[in-house]
Input
Amino acid sequence: MKRKLLEILACPIDKYHPLELFENKSDDEKITEGALYCQQCSRFFPILDEIPIMLPDELRDKKQDIEFLKRNIKELPEKIVTQALPWHL
Output
């Protein structure tokens, strides 16, 4: 995901902007892996292979999201790992 996208991305659930960014793998221009977090509705959206997965809850892949959380448990803040919606560890 290019960093400039942060300027226009909003939560697909409540349209809150700006989203909080947590980077796991990145360089100066793009984020390869990480998470976006909506402070208003407490939802997280994973960034996988440079693509932010910003789907509504009913279209999300729970297994993929849980695996993402387990794989990044040490890199992500507690509010995402243990409290975020639509699911957490």
Notes: The two ends are 25 Å apart (CA to CA). The mean pLDDT is 95. Strands lie at 20-26, 31-37, 44-48, 51-52.
